[in-house]
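Why predict the complex rather than its parts? Because the way molecules touch one another can change local conformation, and only a joint prediction can capture that. The input here totals 290 residues.
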Amino acid sequence: MAKVAFIGLGIMGYPMARHLAKTGGHDLTVYNRTAEKAKTWVAENGGAHADTPRAAAEGADFVFTCVGNDDDLRSVTLGDTGAIAGLKSGAALIDNTTASAAVAREIAAASEAAGAGFLDAPVSGGQAGAENGQLTVMVGGDQATFDKAKPVIDSYAKMVGLMGPVGAGQLTKMVNQICIAGLVQGLSEGIHFAKKAGLDVEKVISVISKGAAQSWQMENRWKTMDEGFFDHGFAVNWMRKDLDICTAAARENGAHLPVAALVDQFYAEVQTMGGGRWDTSSLIARLERE
Ligand code: NAP
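Output of the joint prediction:
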């Protein structure tokens, strides 16, 4: 059993911290900006809550963060009340936020100066994966920190892979988002076309999902896309943040992302339709508006 701090009890962090306590059996101290959520978490799961990220991190062997974006990550890790100020020598800071590779390197350097290790460890699998402890975790960092942290990360994951040095986890998550963007648009167009052509969408999917067009998105989202239900957790606002990170990284490394950039604009239109909190499968709503 390890002493673990968890900072950021949102849609993802709340159940991930629960798995660290209940599945992993670790001793948890949690911090959340909106303190009420941290109190509720402790009432449900035991452990303790702290008033600052620094206080949560003090004495912990592993400190997890799962907040929104680069700036949020800086605000919970850096400065007087940030987690790094509380890190003990030999501890590991593990960031589950989807953020840039650049901020991962920045926070890694600050952790190293405090004598602690750092892993960027963004996740895939959505709200359901977090609730079920079945996330895929893409990790950047050194082998020794990874080996120490992996059994703890396993509490909320079905797959944990070390992808390379610090930043490689975030770069892998970018690949994941680039693949999803074009795929969801293709699936949206397919379902939209099937309806316009007067086909039975269920019949179409039951046949083509056994062929080369099959995908996780097709298996898990076709029905709710057809019904116009977009409440699966991973918000359009978050996807735009992620695609922004991808296109910024592509400008640096010279990769061409024409479809990801276009789909980003489609998501901007979904936002103007009031869909910022709809999930990413809502691309179809843009095609079906009158
Ligand atoms: P969320 O529900 O909006 O939760 C965000 C958490 O971060 C909340 O606990 C929030 O505190 C905290 N936070 C945000 N800004 C902060 C700041 N400046 N200082 C302190 N705390 C701050 O988000 P989520 O859906 O859990 O997503 C978290 C991360 O995982 C994001 O990077 C997202 O892209 C990624 N992700 C999400 C999913 C998904 O399906 N949702 C899937 C994969 C990856 P408050 O409670 O006070 O607001």
